[in-house]
Amino acid sequence: MNAIPSDVQLLRHARAWLDQDPDLSTAEQLRALIEQAPENPEAMSELHDCFNTRLAFGTAGLRGALGPGPNRMNRVLVMQAAAGLAAYLNERGGGAVVIGYDARHNSDVFARDTAAVMTGAGLSAMVLPEPLPTPILAFAILELGCAAGVMVTASHNPPQDNGYKVYLGDGSQIIPPVDAEIAAHIDRVAASTLISDIPVGDEWVTLNDDVINAYITKTAALITSPPTTHARVVYSAMHGVGGRIMNRVCAKAAFPVPAPVDLQFDPDPDFPTVAFPNPEEPGAIDLSLIAARENDADIVIANDPDADRCAVAIPTGETDDEGMPAWRMLRGDEVGSLLAWWIIQRAKQSERAQQEGDKQHQELPPVMAQSLVSGQMLQSIAAAAGIEYRQTLTGFKWIGRIPGLVYGYEEALGYCVDPQTVKDKDGISAALLVIEMASHLKSEGRTLQSALDDLAIEHGVFATDQVSARVQDLADIPRIMNQLRSHPPSTIGGIAVDEFIDLELGSPDLPPTDGLLFRLAGGARVIVRPSGTEPKVKCYLQAVAPVTGTDLTSARASAQGVLSALAFEVGGWLQ
Fold this sequence. Notes:
Layout: H1 7-20, H2 24-36, H3 41-51, E1 62-65, H4 75-91, E2 96-101, H5 107-120, E3 124-127, H6 134-144, E4 148-152, E5 161-168, H7 178-192, E6 205-206, H8 210-220, E7 233-236, H9 243-252, E8 259-260, H10 262-265, H11 286-294, E9 299-303, E10 310-319, E11 325-329, H12 332-355, E12 367-371, H13 377-384, E13 388-392, H14 396-399, E14 405-410, E15 414-416, H15 427-443, H16 448-459, E16 461-470, H17 476-486, E17 491-492, E18 495-502, E19 516-520, E20 525-530, E21 536-545, H18 552-573
Parallel strand pairs: 2-3, 2-4, 3-6, 7-8, 7-9, 12-13, 12-14
Antiparallel strand pairs: 1-5, 4-5, 9-10, 10-11, 14-15, 16-21, 17-18, 18-19, 19-20, 20-21
């Protein structure tokens, strides 16, 4: 949508939107802004922000703040999106659509609106029975043989946001050019059809618990040999929808139910105990660490609000400034490497069991994959095990599509450990395997940290970090990218740049994407890209240091020194 050139036209456009808004809440917000705007500059500015552009539909679907107008998440925008998606599906033969939703504000409303529009367009629509994790929606698409799926969620965004993810029948989120084709249909609906003229129906079906039970059964079946020693686990649902499902999966797998972080267990769309409902954010797992000390836990597991991500924290063996046991969050790359190692160990154990007459044989996995921005220890782990390794662009829309995939991950706490069941990141199944791994290690007198140490001794220290900047003006993102693209540095943090790759140009292995890759001397690396879901520029840093003998201290200090130098310089780029 083009920028609106005058306040008069803006008010006319806002009144036209108000006339078709079926939501009493956003209609009242808009009515108040229209009444105040002529005399109130702040109200006029808010109107401009609501109407001067439109939330862009892309591979991540839609995501933005709730409110009136085309630049907010609301019932008008969602019904237009649903009608555009329905038109796209009907062009390709129609079929069934399954719709899931989390516990955010208006998620259930947006799900019902989507179902009504789908049935009005002649499609079969099914709605999951309650607020549920995103992985269950991804599972339901395959389980029910649907042509598409929609998940209403803003994942780990702030409480004022909501979003709309679209999957096709292969169980993966959409990729180009499908996103642009759906967006074109949405734009045609928005330009030519009032909401009141979009056909709706009431023949959609609310599913029963069968699909939930099937997901729980298949996920729990990952555990074929329950450990005899169990790690003590503290779990946080981060005010999201993962808690009840996590408990049921653990019980089905014959694991003890984790000790909950009570204040964060039940769904709450206001996320009252955290500034951002993202386990990666500072302070988000503070309550989990308190519970870990109270329960003498071995590990902490935290899902994000829609439970497609999994965070892990472990004790350091030291004490903090108050004399309490110190804990640290594992980086996403650390968990990613641990899960890869554990999946290989599970396959080897299964192979040995088969040799002893156990018919439940799991072959060594043929392909492991990760996003380009993730740390590269996985490549070394896969090579050592004789497993094919692949890199993809960021997002499980790319990872989940790889033929023969048995494990994939990205550093932002996303792990796919059971692609036959869920071809997307799944924080529940990943958590289950982390608990299994920690329990088996505990039975041997070992920990997740000792397993990380062993991996570093074998493969080297791969230290990773991220520097990001949230922008107020979206124009700052292309400004930063264009400056680096046109004037790439020859050194970063005092380390020579061996190779500069503009990812926007694409390659035989990767389609074009807005990103920049700097390969540095000694295996260090910097990747810069805009966030796909937030107004941020993200810089992904990696430093690699070989380990002499078992001298992890020196290797880690060396790698950390490189990371610090990279972070200092890269931070200046984002000013």
